[in-house]
Amino acid sequence: MIRVERTRIIKCQAQDLWGKLIAFEDFSDLVKTIESVKISKNPDGTCTSDWVALLDDCRIEWTESDIFNEEIYTIDFRQTVGDFREMWGHWKLTPLKSDETQIELVIEFDIGIESLAPLLNPLVESAIVEHSELIIDSFEPRPLSHSMSGRSL
Hints:
By secondary structure, the chain is of the alpha+beta class.
């Protein structure tokens, strides 16, 4: 199993960041290598999400079960069907100050092709790190641009 961990402090209140984090369907607008994410709500309160992403121009797909817990700001996920032999992990938000939140993403995966693992594992790990960083980058506050209403300086 390969484990990827990303942690960062974001200047944003946890509740506001939570709203961005649970919007999986928007991730395809944030990261060009994520083609689509579709969420379905299940009767038991969990969600299922279907993901399509590109890994070096190779399309990978999976469906995961997602458990959202807003009280403690966590999302636990586990692949139920897909291109990995196994894949699971979690997102976790930890409020630090009134305007800062630590975001954590942990993903563990096994591609399931033992003979190619030495070649494929580093590529998949690198792609997951890159995708994770791009998603987390999108949560960073952006400076407001100031317009001079068409006036030149």
